[in-house]
Specification:
The complex is a heterodimer of chains A (264) and B (274). Chain A has 264 residues and is mainly α. Chain A has one domain (2-258). Chain A is built from 11 helices and 2 strands, in the order ααββααααααααα. Chain A has a two-stranded antiparallel sheet with strand order 1-2. Chain A is globular. In chain B, 70% of the residues lie in helices and 0% in strands. Classes of the chains: A mainly alpha (264), B mainly alpha (274). At the A-B interface, helix 2 and helix 8 of A face helix 2 and helix 9 of B.
């Protein structure tokens, strides 16, 4: 059975390979946005040298890292699952002899892996060439970063599946999905580094499930999260992941029971 | 000639009314959609506000000034999204071969294309723009800014020009679809990227980017230059102040160029033929 999920992931990975030009165009857009964001941050840092423990280079590296991870963890407007619910295709997926949510998780993990190699790495590389970004705090920070990113990616996938499952109740769930994704991206530091947030807001977002998706991995990458606070963040990340898994399984079970397919 | 234009305008209004009627059928969806879009754009604006928590100024620009710039850009872009939705979605028309049907009808192609989509949810961003504008006026209190009728005129003309400029960019992107539908995301650099970029003072960017958005794709004439005039900031590249009044002219010239390119594209369009 494990082999099946592996094949699902592999197929999803290979399907992405076809959209070469679309990905290249997306990469250009991604880099352009990063340059705009960097220009704003550079101009702001003229007024003071550090914010929290972040100097200019840290803030730039953080921004490029989170922007590079978007397509891996929380891609904009991911409505693939919602569309299958709307067209009724979801029934074929539900009647397959495999676990529905695990099937989608494998699919998305395959896709995420593609974006690690063909979006995240090139984007960050471009940032490194233009602004001379940080290349990881130290060699031993890398394996922790990759583990943290893997956990964050799976949390992101499950969160997106949950948002899409809303379509079982509201047919036009796009609005809910877009809002949910935007809030998640905002809270995890995609639009601006979490360290810039006012104190009350950064305390609030540090307890949300989104924190582990990109903010925590980015902090590990920059070496801002070490020792006991690292262990605490990892535990929190795991805890949220567990809760997300339980919720997605419950909701899938409820949704499957009430699914009525048009046309008999 | 005049009567032709009159007929076409009436047709345009009627096609838009049709779109509106269709969307009114699903009121709950519409309200939910508009509300979401409003909240998403509010979050965009919050980014500007949060930047000024740890930092006092952005290269000499204060919170209220950047907020005003961001609000005006949002308004121009929101209007462009509302009226240019069909043009923005032109790639689906080409992909599905529906453009052949457009060519068969005895109505200007551009009118048909731009009325294929008129999404009321775009009002969400315009509402956000108005709210942000009010908020920026509140933040600007301390700066002793004197509003004159001339300044208000420049700002209004700027918003209209920036809407026209954004629609023209969408039209350029749509025209590229006659050759390839794979590059649609590249226009996003100029539209979404341009909007994001112009929400902040142009002077913070690299010289090349500044030149691009002033002289080649003159989006700066829509928002940045009028806002500079209103706030009394110097225009980029030592341009004279009166240029702020020329934004409608610049926008019109750019739109005509985009229109010429579109016509060229339509003439050399060949359907897949299968």
């Amino acid at each position: 059975m494990l082999r099946f999920y592996f094949e699902v992931a592999r197929t999803a990975y290979r399907r992405q390979l076809i959209y070469r030009w679309a990905n290249l165009a997306g990469l250009c857009t991604n880099v352009f946005f990063c340059i705009v964001l960097s220009s704003v941050i550079i101009a702001l840092y003229q007024a003071r040298p550090t914010v929290g423990s972040y100097n200019l280079r840290d803030a730039l590296s953080y921004s490029w890292a989170t922007q590079a991870m978007i397509m891996v963890v929380l891609p904009f407007g991911w409505i693939d699952l919602m569309l299958t619910i709307r067209t009724g295709e979801v029934v074929t997926d539900l009647s397959k002899p495999c676990d529905f949510s695990l099937y989608w998780v494998s699919r998305e993990v395959g896709r995420a892996l593609y974006y690690v190699f063909f979006r995240a790495l090139p984007t960050y590389l471009a940032g490194w060439l233009i602004f001379g970004l940080e290349l990881g705090a130290s060699w031993n920070a890398w394996p922790i970063f990759l583990g943290c990113l893997a956990l964050g990616t799976i949390s992101g996938v499950i969160f997106r599946i949950l948002l899409n499952l809303v379509a079982f109740w509201i047919l036009e769930a796009r609005a809910v999905i877009v809002l949910g994704l935007t809030i998640a991206q905002f809270s995890t530091g995609v639009y601006l580094p979490v360290v810039f947030f006012p104190a009350w807001l950064s305390t609030l977002v540090s307890w949300l499930p989104f924190n582990g998706m990109m903010n925590a991995p980015a902090q590990v990458f920059l070496g801002k999260l070490t020792g006991s606070s690292l262990l605490f963040e990892l535990a929190l990340q795991l805890g949220w992941l567990l809760i997300l898994i339980i919720v997605v399984r419950r909701i899938t079970a409820i949704a499957t029971r009430r699914v009525v397919v048009q046309g008999g | 000639m005049i009567s032709m234009l009159h007929i076409e305008l009436r047709l345009y209004a009627r096609l838009i009314r049709m779109q509106l009627r269709a969307q009114m059928q699903y009121k709950v969806d519409l309200v939910l959609d508009m509300l979401t879009y409003f909240l998403v754009t509010v979050l965009d604006f919050c980014v500007v506000l949060i930047y000024f928590v740890p930092f006092p100024t952005l290269l000499g620009w204060h919170l209220g000034e950047v907020a005003l710039l961001s609000a005006v850009t949002s308004l121009g872009f929101g209007l462009a999204e509302l009226f240019g939705g069909g043009i923005d979605n032109f790639d689906t028309l080409i992909r599905q071969g529906d453009f052949d049907r457009v060519l068969l009808r005895p109505v200007t192609t551009l009118i048909q294309v731009s009325t294929t989509q008129f999404r009321l949810r775009r009002l969400g961003r315009i509402t956000q723009g108005i709210g942000a504008f009010a908020l920026s006026l509140f933040f600007l209190r301390g700066l002793n800014l004197i509003w004159t009728p001339l300044k208000i005129l420049v700002l209004l003309l700027g918003i209209a020009s920036s809407a026209l400029l954004f629609v023209s960019i969408l039209l350029l992107g749509a025209t590229i679809c006659f050759w390839t539908v794979d590059a649609t995301e590249l226009t996003n650099i100029l539209t979404y990227g341009g909007r994001e970029m112009l929400s902040y003072p142009l002077t913070i960017y690299h010289q090349l980017m500044q030149r691009l958005f002033v002289f080649i794709v003159p989006l700066a004439f829509g928002t940045y230059i009028p806002v500079c005039y209103v706030l009394g900031h110097a225009l980029p590249f030592d341009l004279p102040d009166w240029l702020a009044f020329t934004s409608p002219l610049v926008a019109l010239l750019f739109a005509l160029a985009a229109l010429a390119f579109w016509r060229f594209g339509v003439h050399r369009y060949q359907s897949t033929g299968s």
